[in-house]
Amino acid sequence: MIRLWFDKGTILLRGEVGTPYGKWDPRVDSYRIKAMHYGDVLAYLKESKLAFQDDVPNLPPIEHLNPTVELRSYQKEALDKWRQANMRGILVLPTAAGKTYVALKAISQLEKQTLIVVPTLDLIDQWRKRLSDHLNTEAGAVGGGENTVKMITVSTYDSAYLQAETLGNRFLLIVFDEVHHLASPSYMQIAEMYIAPYRMGLTATYERSDERHELLPRLVGDPVYTVGVEELAGEHLSPYTYEKIFVELTPEEQRAYDNNMATFRFYLREKGIVLRSPEDFQKFIMTTGRDRRAREALLSRNRALKIALNSEAKLRLLARQLEANRNEKTLIFTLHNDLVYAISHRFLIPAITYQTPKEERREILENFRKSEYKAIVTSQVLDEGVDVPDASAGYILSGTGSTREYIQRLGRLLRKVEGKRAKLVEIVSKETVEVGISRRRRHKKPMET
Amino acid sequence: MLPSELLAVWKRKGDIWPRYARATEDAMEVANSLIKAYRDHVGEKKSILKAFAAELEDEGHEYRFVRGLAYLLDRRSRFNCNDKISPVELRRRIFQETGKLGLATTLEKRKKITEIVASELKITSQTVDDFLYADLDNELVLEEFEPPTPDELLKEYNLSLTQTLLFDSTELSFTASGNWQRIFHTVKRLGLIYEVYKEGRIWVKIDGPASLFKLTRRYGTSTAKLLPAIIANPEWTIEAKILWRYTNEICNFKLESSKHHTLLKSPHQPIISFDSVVEQEFAEQFQALKTGWQLKREPEPVPAGKQVIIPDFSLEREGVKVYLEIVGFWTLEYLLRKMEKLRKVDANMLIVVNEDLACEKLADLGKNTRLNIIYYRNKVLLAPVLRYLEKASQGTRVAQKEFLKNLSVVFTEPIVEYEEFATRIGVPTEAVKAALAEKPPEEYIVMPSSLVRKDKLEQIKERIEKQMKPTGRLALPDAIRIIESEGVADATKSLETLGYKIVWRGINAEKAEITKP
To answer: How many domains does chain A have?
Structure first.
């Protein structure tokens, strides 16, 4: 008789039959199949009317759910499209459009063992709270020191990747929150090493600048429903204003900036190096490992960028802005931790970075929610999906220049601002490379130097 | 293991290897000054150490080397936050105050807020400023440091470099001498898969389940963790395929104990300990008996299909080799699985099973296998083991004789040494000798250590005749010299065969002579 069983993120088949996707593994004298093809292999064996013993799944017990989720019309539409696509596929909805609720509804309708994969530890907490509030179930968690598997379990991408060997056969539905992460070379193995035949991907930003999102349909299913910010704005989401302010560097800053940039450009010209794309730049970085002068050129460039990003003139402008809008609840973003702490220290604003202890970060967010704190300054950590309560003003002081971050930072501000237009201000140094980064963020242009 | 951005390599024509730190004056100098900096700055901030490392970089030392060493020194350090004032608590107070009074958008406002908090906590405003973020990484204070010697540090660095390179490996093959048991335990624990093949020595190829589908670095981290277990042995060779992340090309990486042993920090090799008292007792009693069987603990792995078995002992005498495996606690399922594996072994294996600890009925066990099982209670009795060894050795001798008899070799060389011939065809010398003595090839004479062709003996005879004195005698040492110069070892037997007689004068061979027949 044919026997199937799970072996560390793959399926082994012993018996006198090959299957689609099966590959003979001489190391163990069996056919080996990627776990993601579990559903297809079962279908094939059934179709062929072959007797087989299936020892693959190792599922936690079913708990009955008490769902209290009501969907808006476009959320219902999204869910229908997903169900029509055999419960596989990606839903593209803007931030704050309630992607979570669509997933919660899907989970409660299907009532099968479910793994929800999220990018950060904060999102684990957030999902568990939602599951408790809306499905009346205490979900398990994998990641951040916890390791409990239940009918519904939430995990980080990292843990789902690292523990694929043992978790891969424990769920039938898998929900990828912020699914664009899944396309990275390591995380995509999560999709490959888990058996779940039912798959849902959620994102506000399906496209990646490296084009790897083209891999996602094979791993999760096609994008089955897409709705943009514009379509929902007005009806379901609050509109916002966007303003970009250019600031001139102080004369000393400008001089230092020019000098450093000249060193960098001189080196490039001398060596005939042209930097048109991030890949070109990656290659250039590699040469700095063996070439001292290349490294000095790179350091000069970094110094120049740092001057532009940390410009005193910008901080003065920020001070004026904060003063003028002192009643707004304010979020200040910058990718640079040094700048976060400089701003925190100078204006005595709570800071959140990757170094902030978890407890303190929770407390800061809580106090911000209660309006006891009026502002937060932060680097990347709040970038995705975490509920940051009702901020009405936002400032971007620097950035890496990808469309995704741009939309999601906007989205954060759009959340729950009632009856009032949120205000987003981007502060950019004039006549520096930063203008290029900032423009690229909106239009996806290649890098300029 | 280092952060991957600190990995420095050389790459040439598909080969890759880490830029190992050699004990040059320059490298020792960097190591030494860094260690000294850490030692001298106990009690001070981490940012000072970082600045010191940055200075070394600015002096022209390779930055990844400097940072790599600093990274390893950080791991030998304990950093702590100054505990006079809790920065978390201080921040909470400040931010609460800012919440009430508004953001510190002007210097005056900032001053006011800090002063309120300072007076409340009975510290100065300056202290507030200093301690606000005293728990950030750069602000932490070095409390304890365990200094290595520069040489140790460089070796640790080289080991870490190697492991960091292996993060990007898609497969690794190795061969080693020594503690295989430990290596295979580690392989299992790390969820890796191995395959064994023979290429001169026994080689083991390591990768993981999903390696079947595509090249993947997924098992690189586990492979890197396996490295110490391999290089803890006295001899080893490692070959790995590296999927170089920046260019996406496959590079070869090779490491050998003969060349690289002194470069790397050698992990502690635990002394081979016996798994059980039973094994230890058996080994001691067996050796006390002086049977001529050579007992070896944890011998080389024995291939079983594509897997291996590492028996507890090997016993060897006159080219007969028997492996012995002592099974203590077992279940029927375990034993069946073991037998499944043992069936694939092409070697003589004796299994000694504890009858008392047996969890299942033994009855069926011996029947459906061709395995050799002996049972024991409390301790392994030597008699049945020796009986088995005797049988094995007889069986082997008979089998070898049979083998040689059927082996039709045509010799062409004038002298055939038994030992050399035996190694060539892979049977014990004794067996070769016995078989050839029983049925010597034509044209050859059987000597104690070799076969000598008849015409070769004739040549020797001619030379002796020429040297003979008119008396028809020759000094024995001269005759032996002639024979040996022809490449024949068995002088006395040769003379005898040619019909010469040895005339002794006393017991001194120098004075002996040979005479014509």
So the answer is: 4
Indicate the number of domains in chain B: 5
Domain identity same for B193 and B317: no
Domain that holds residue A40: 2-55
Indicate whether A449 belongs to any domain.
no
Closest partner residue to A347 among B91, B96, B103, by Cβ?
Answer: B103
Name the token pair of B224: 């890197």
Residue A186 belongs to some domain of the structure: yes
- Yes or no, beta carbons of A348 and B193 under 8 Å apart: no
Tell me, yes or no, whether B432 lies in a domain. Answer: no
Return the number of CB contacts < 8 Å for A and B.
98
Same domain, A175 and A31: no
Contact B210 A9 (CB under 8 A): yes
| Strand-pair category, B249-256 with B235-244 | antiparallel
How many Cβ atoms from other residues are within 10 Å of residue A74's Cβ?
18
| B312 in the same domain as B255 | no
Asked if A433 and A354 sit in the same domain, the reply is: yes
Strands (E), B290-356: 294-297, 302-304, 307-309, 313-317, 320-327, 349-354
Q: Does B334 touch chain A (CB under 8 A)?
A: no
Q: Is residue A84 part of a domain?
A: yes
Nearest to A344 by CA among B110, B52, B35, B278: B110
B387 and B296 within one domain: yes
Q: Are B175 and B56 in contact (CB under 8 A)?
A: no
Among candidates A376, A312, A314, A371, which has minimal Cα distance to A344? A376
In a domain, B73, yes or no: yes
Domain annotation covers residue A67: no
User: Strand, coil or helix: what is B72?
Assistant: helix
**What are phi and psi for residue A151, nearest 5 degrees?**
-55, -45
Point out the residue among A9, A34, A348 whose CB comes nearest to the CB of B104: A348
What are the strands, taking DSSP E only, across A258-323? none
Each residue's pLDDT tens digit in chain B (517 positions)? 899 889 999 998 899 999 999 989 999 999 999 999 999 999 999 999 999 998 888 777 888 999 999 999 999 999 988 777 889 999 999 999 999 998 999 999 999 999 999 999 899 999 899 889 988 888 899 999 999 999 999 999 999 999 999 999 999 999 988 777 778 888 888 888 888 887 878 888 999 888 888 888 889 999 999 999 899 888 899 999 999 888 888 999 999 999 888 888 877 665 555 666 788 888 888 888 888 888 888 777 888 877 788 888 889 887 788 888 887 766 666 777 777 777 777 778 888 887 776 555 555 555 555 677 888 887 888 888 888 888 888 877 777 777 777 777 778 888 888 888 887 777 777 778 877 877 778 888 888 888 888 888 888 888 888 888 788 888 888 888 898 888 888 888 888 888 888 888 777 777 888 888 6
How far is A339 from B116, CA to CA, in rounded Å? 26
ipTM: 0.71
Range of the structural domain that residue B509 is part of: 453-515
pTM here is 0.69
**Same structural domain for residues B175 and B205?**
yes
Residue window 213-232, chain A: list those with CB within 8 Å of chain B: none
Distance from CA of B212 to the nearest CA of A (A): 7
